[in-house]
Amino acid sequence: MRRREFFGAAAGAFTASTTALAAPERKPNIVMILCDDLGYGDPGCYGGRIRTPNIDRMAAEGMRFTDFYAAYPVCSPSRAALLTGKYPTRVGVPRVLFPDDKGGLDLAERTMADHLKSDGYRTFIVGKWHLGCTPPYLPQRRGFDHWFGIPYSNDMRPRKLMRDDQVLEQEANLNNLTELYTQESVKFIRESGNNPFFLYLPHTFPHIPLAASPRFLGKSPLGLYGDTVEELDWSVGEILQTLKSQGIDRDTLVMFSSDNGPWYEGSPGRLRGRKGFTLEGGMRVPFIARMPGRVPAGTVSRQLASMMDVMPTSLSLAGRPLPSRGIDGIDLWPALSDAKRTLDREALLYFAEGGDLQCIRWKNWKLHVARHNVPYYAPVPAVGRLNLPLLRPELYDLSLDEDESYDVAARHPDIVADLRGRVDRLMATMPDSIRRLWSDTLARKTYEVPAGAWPPVVK
User: How many domains does the chain have?
Assistant: First the structure.
C-alpha cells in the first residue's frame, strides 16, 4: 500500500470509529406491570406467604421501595395518576368510573404514552384500562398504538375483551385472561426489534372475581387468591425472560406495583386498612424497579414515592423534557440509580373515593384530618356518606409506627401545625370542585365522643 493510500485508509477508519462513538445511545424501553388490588403484604419479598419467586427475583436484581403510595385507594384514580403524573383530583378522575359513565380522564391531558409516542416509542397497553369507555377516552386516543384487554374492572358488565376497537368476546373468559395478557405482551416485545417501546401491563387480577388457568388452579396452599397471584408471578417471569432472550434486558426499565391495597382477600402486611381507606393498608403498595447495570441490585429504598412519580421518572430516563404544565410527581431516577440518595419532595395528600381529603404525609409524619362516617364497603345510612373533620387530628410517626397504632399529636403540636399549613397551601391549588368538597368537610361539626368511638354523631 502506498503511503498516501495508507493515511487515507487510516483517516477513513478514524472517521468511521468516531461516527460510531457519536451515534446516539438506544432509547431505553419501559415496562410498567400493574396489579389490581394486590396487597402490600402479598409478595414474598414484602413478607408475604404466597409463592412469588419471579417478583422476589426482580427485587433481588433491582430496588424495592418500602414507602410507595398509590395516590388514591381505588382503581381509576390511581391509574390516572400513573399516566399523568398528577393527582387524580386535577385530571377529572376523582372516583371509580363505571360502564355508564360518558367521561373519563380529562381529554386535555397528555398521557405518558402520548409523550413517549411522540419521541418514537411503540406504545402498547395489555389489560384493564378503566379511564373512560366511550370512544374519545379509549387507549388508542390516549397515546397507545394498540390495546388488548377489558375496559374496566372484571366485576363490571359487560366484561368485553377488546383488541383496539374490535370486541373479541362479549364476556371475557377470566380463567385464561392472565395467560392471554402475557402472550400478547411477549409477542409485542419480540416484534419491537430495535424500536424503543413502552409496554403498560395493567393486570385484571387479583381484583374479584378471582380466577386462574388450569395450570395454576388449586396449586397454591392459600386458596384461589394464592392461585391467582402465583399466576401473576409467572407472568412477571415470562416478561423478564423475554427481555433477556431478546438481548434487551439491560436496556429496559421494568416497574412492578399495585393500584391500591387489597380488597376482600389479600394481605396489607402490618398496615391498618384495606382498599378504599386512606389508612396505610389502602394506600401503600409494593413497588419494584429493575434495570440491570443502571438500578443497583438487591437494594431497598425508603424514599417517599408515589404512583405520580412513574411518568416523570420514565420521561427523564427516556431523555424527554417534563411537560410544561405542572405535575405533582417527581423524577425518582436519581434515587433509582443511586441507592444512597434521597430526594426532597412536597408532602403527599391522601384523597378518598370521590375526592375527599383525609390525610397528609410529609417525611416520616402522617396526619389524619378527616374520615368518612361509614366504611368503604358499608351501606350508606340515611344521612348519607360524609367526610367528617377530626376534632383532634391524629399524628403518626410511620418510621416507628407503620400500622398507625399510636397517636402522638399531643407531643408534636409544631408538626401538626406545619402539616395543617401544608394542607392549606396544597388544597389552594386544586380545582374548584375539590376545594368545595374540602370546605364542606371543614364546615361540618361533630359531637365529641369517647376516645376510640366511631362514628361520631353529625351535628
Answer: 2
* Cα–Cα distance, 23 to 384 (Å, whole number): 63
- Which range marks the domain in which residue 201 is found? 29-337
Summarize pLDDT for 102-153 with one digit per residue, the tens. Answer: 999 999 999 999 999 999 999 999 999 999 999 999 999 999 999 999 999 9
What torsion, rounded to 10 degrees, do the Cα atoms 265, 270, 275, 277 define?
Answer: 150
The gap from C-alpha 233 to its chain's centroid, in whole angstroms, comes to 17
Bridge partners of residue 255, in order along the sequence: 32, 289
Give backbone dihedrals phi and psi of 86, rounded to 5 degrees, phi first: -125, 160
- Distance between CA atoms of residues 413 and 58, nearest Å: 42
Domain contains 455: no
> What span, in angstroms and rounded, lies between the C-alpha atoms of 348 and 423?
9
**Among 329, 294, 242, 298, residue whose Cα is nearest residue 33:** 242
**Cβ neighbours for 164, distance < 8 A, ≥ 6 positions apart:** 140, 146, 147
Residue 133 among the catalytic residues = no
Coil, strand, or helix at residue 458?
Answer: strand
Catalytic residue list contains 130: yes
Provide the strand spans (E) within 263-331: 287-290, 299-301, 305-306
In tens, the pLDDT along 59-117 reads 999 999 999 999 999 999 999 999 999 999 999 999 999 999 999 999 999 999 999 99
Distance CA 356, CA 437 (A): 6
> Could you give the count of Cα atoms lying within 13 Å of 154 in the half-sphere of its Cβ?
22
CA 142, CA 107: separation in Å to the nearest integer?
8
Indicate whether 208 and 282 sit together in one domain: yes
Please indicate, yes or no, whether residues 110 and 202 belong to a single structural domain of this protein: yes
Per the residue annotation, which of 115, 130, 207, 368 is the catalytic one?
Answer: 130
